[in-house]
Amino acid sequence: MIFVNLPVADLRRSVEFYEAIGFSLDPRFSNDQAASMVLSDTICVMLLTHEFWATFTDRRRVDPAQEAQVLLCISREDRAAVDAITEAAVSAGGMADPCPAQDHGFMYGRSFADPDGHIWEPMWMSAEAVENGPAEVSNAG
After folding, report:
1. What is the distance between the alpha carbons of residues 99 and 31, in angstroms, rounded to a whole number?
2. What pLDDT, in 10s, does the model give residues 13-28?
3. pLDDT tens for residues 56-71?
4. Distance, CA of 37 to chain centre
5. φ, ψ for residue 110 (rounded to 5)?
6. What is the pTM of this model?
7. DSSP H or E stretch at residue 96
8. What gap in Å lies between CA 58 and CA 53, rounded to an integer?
9. How far apart are CA 53 and CA 46, in angstroms?
10. What are the DSSP calls for 11-72, one per residue?
């Protein structure tokens, strides 16, 4: 399993945002300092208040609205699902396309930032590109 830990300024706002884009809250691992948001059977996002985040590391917390430390890429089942989660993010208070959209025919991706500025990149890749590699598909055209 993968647990992505993200520091957030307003835990309640962040929980509402992630629920609006399709994550579900796991109350077993949530309290007033952290919320476990389930994306899939193998991926959870732990939203941590800034104070609680600081108990895990002595490193400086960066402002994700100003600096990028990671880009969180998640696959979607098709192009429409990429657009749908991006538009849901905007409706829930996020920002669309902080990174350039990508359309290579065999692969399509967009991005959104959550209310704190953490960047997510939903993407779709054709089954042929997944099977053979994107270089093979792009060279065939």
Report:
1. 33
2. 999 999 999 999 999 9
3. 999 999 999 999 989 9
4. 11
5. -135, -170
6. 0.91
7. strand 95-96
8. 10
9. 10
10. HHHHHHHHHHTT-EEEGGG--SSEEEEESSSSEEEEEEEHHHHTTT-SSPPP-TTT--S-EE
